[in-house]
Amino acid sequence: AFKFTEVDAYMHSFHALTRCKSRQLFAKGNPSCISVHLARNPCQHLTTAVPAVRHLRSNSFRPGPAGVCTAPVVRGASSPSVSRFQDTESRGLQSKGLSSLAKSTSLAGGLTAVVAGVACYATAGAADAETMAAPGGGSLAEIDLEALASADLVVTTTPACPYCKKAKGALKDAGIPYAEVYVDQDQQLRAKLKEVVGRSSVPQVFVGGASVGGSDDLAAALQSGDFQKKLEEARVNGTRALPQDLMQCIREAAGRVKAASQASGASASAAMAAPKELLDLASRAAAPAQKGGLPRRKQQVGPRTLPVFSGKDLLEWLQGQQQQQPEAQAQALLQAVLITPAVPFDAAQSAKAPSPMPFKASELYSLVEEVPPPAKGQPLNSHIWWTGPARPAVQVAEELRALILRLYDAHLSADGKSVNYRAMKVSPLFKQYTKATSELQRVDLSPLSRQELLAFGINLYNALIVHATVVVGAPTSTLERADFFSKSAAYVIGGHTYASDDIENGILRCNRPAASNLFVLVGLPGLASGQFKNSDARSKKLVCPPDPRIHFALVCGARSCPPIKMYTPDNVEEALQGAGEAFCAGEVEVDRQNQAVKLSKIFQWYSVDFGKNDTEKLRFISKFLQGSAKQDLEAMLASGKKIKVSYKPYDWSLNGEA
């Protein structure tokens, strides 16, 4: 019933590095992969290995609640319990002075568990990751606090952070297990983290009760061997990774997050989900007519050809499906946005239609899952009509951003350097996202406060750029970029079409001219007109005065990610400060010896936002620098001497595969 395949693994002891063999154990007919490290001399301490194999023959591995890996208890080992995407070492052999750096192979969608009292890994493939309520396993609502408190290596992260991914990838490549905790979900936790380490950026890698730094610091320490020494010393001394006060703060934060989650009911994705019976009904309708599906016919609707059916056809089909109230079921399908009117889309009418839209037997409809993307040049969320109830703009934008974060995290490479947009395009979660964007057609921006509009604009801009990159592709020339940001990347919001340039320069910059405006390019921004004309209805709702820190939130080019990827009215001030610190850490170079500063092109393109001259601009930047860079720049400014300011070339290449 079992097949064994030998792979190499390494085990550390106090006295010597010894090499062992590991064998992968595959249960016949079971997709889960179980790596069992079998001891061979001279690894004499691993006497629990063979009993572990006998134990496995009569016990199965199974996923526990919220993706927890539940493994059989092995003699000499504690029962490992690890959240998905976390590698937390079991301490079963620690009393014997052993620590494992054993590597375990992950199978997409399966569980990999390393037993014999050493470690338990639980991983999942990208497709599986998308079905989770949140990416990764460090969510405060789901984390195993006791396992975290006993871990000897902890990484604080946020979802979809490239540098967090890079740090975790480096640890996995080195075969070093770790525990993970998200810090984006609680303001008090983020404040405590900044108090402990002196900075708000992530990741922070904790060993022996202190942080060794971020991704770059970890890479350097791994290369020199200092990190391994520090970790081994902590294990020998039994020192836990997290300081006690930080661990206590995490416990309190987890309680707050869980309470808030219970109070708000379901998650964003669950709140948007249709009842199962309606989903089943729509699935049966999508079958071919000869197999009992709803009869459809091809018809030209505007620039697209759609499979359509009449409302009367739907009612007759529902009666044939033994539905007792076909009219009510048809209305429910429309309200759940499982069917959509098969009429040419009209942005202005989309905001004026009744909410929810009434079902009519005389009208034509299409199944939403059969509707093709919008025609070229049309807003990306105009492929269907939003027929459900209208909800507050902030809630809609936050949920869209949460979906994009899950997609981004699932398709971000292990080294954090690239995103697989091609795989994202065929993802079921991306289909869910594109459908959800149609709700923007009905949102009303007029009630939003300045802080609410600021958070709304940032979240929506970032989500829109990812959406457009997946569907349209990344621009490769100056003309393509102009078209991308001014036309292709666009949504219908409250009955009006907003391109990404409109969101950035119109809403977020209080109707200032775009960086590509001719007068701005020649250094005469005062002569340039704003993004919107005064007669434009979109000019009535803007973020005024503008906050220059938006440029740190709309562009991610830092060595360390900002600690918050989701902006809300409550956290936007803190989030923008953190984004500024992270951005400037990677995009500002201070050379005190030569009285020079090198900056990102962002500071040149949007110069008017940061100050009237270079001195004002540098004073603004100094508020986001840390350590010697901050001290040097402040000293240079205080000297009164002229500072030479130059700008780095901007890399427009795509950060992934389109």
Secondary-structure map:
Layout: E1 2-13, E2 17-27, E3 33-36, H1 49-56, E4 62-63, E5 69-70, E6 81-82, E7 86-89, E8 98-100, E9 112-114, E10 119-122, H2 126-129, H3 145-150, E11 154-157, H4 162-173, E12 179-182, H5 187-197, E13 204-207, E14 210-211, H6 215-224, H7 226-237, H8 244-264, H9 268-272, H10 276-285, E15 297-301, E16 304-310, H11 311-320, H12 326-335, E17 339-341, H13 347-352, E18 364-367, H14 393-410, E19 419-420, H15 421-425, H16 428-437, H17 450-471, H18 478-488, E20 490-493, E21 496-499, H19 500-508, H20 518-521, H21 550-554, H22 572-587, E22 588-591, E23 596-599, H23 602-605, H24 607-610, H25 614-622, H26 627-639, E24 644-647, E25 656-657
Parallel strand pairs: 3-9, 11-12, 19-25, 23-24
Antiparallel strand pairs: 1-2, 1-8, 2-3, 4-5, 5-6, 7-10, 11-13, 13-14, 15-16, 16-18, 17-18, 20-21, 22-23
Helix pairs in contact: 4-6, 5-8, 11-12, 14-16, 14-17, 17-19, 25-26
